[in-house]
């Protein structure tokens, strides 16, 4: 998989037709179980990277399970009362807002205040600036991708202090659109935007 990905990247610009899809791989070189293409959506693949039938999802991502089980989205449990409450869309919006506030407070502590007419005042920054800053502070090797070891401590903190806690348990996994166990800058940004931070004020 890594060889084919490297080849595709090297020949992307030289090909007269262009390379429309480059497969995503795990760190160990195997194919990520979910592959995505903007114009198509996301789908499940087997160990050889071949698409599995009836798994393509245009919005969101499919639930890919091990061989021998259904590769389609799992149906709702017959007795949902016995299951723990899941993180709903509204829950996720509240969680994202609380998490962003945590990042903003941290950013304001480490960034120096600006002088305005002889006095000091806190700088108003955009959500994107705060998210970009936080991503960079976690990205220890500066490769533009967060692996599990890099955001492990953040996840522990989130599970303890950010509510609703049921959403904190799935942080990271819920952001990992292609399920390669890493978070790209795009996945990091989408993790906060896709669940509509404006939902609470709408």
UniProtKB/TrEMBL annotation:
Key words of the record: Calcium, Disulfide bond, Glycoprotein, Repeat, Secreted
Single GO MF descriptor: calcium ion binding
Organism: Aedes albopictus
GO-annotated cellular components: extracellular space
Domain Thyroglobulin type-1: residue ranges: 5-64
Domain of life from the UniProt record: Eukaryota
Location(s), subcellular: Secreted
Ranges annotated as biased composition (Basic residues): 64-87
Domain EF-hand, first and last residues per copy: 126-161
Cystine residue pairs: 44-64
Name of the protein this chain belongs to: Putative secreted modular calcium-binding protein
Annotated stretches, region: Disordered: 55-87
Principal cellular location given in the protein's record: secreted
SMART domains per record: TY
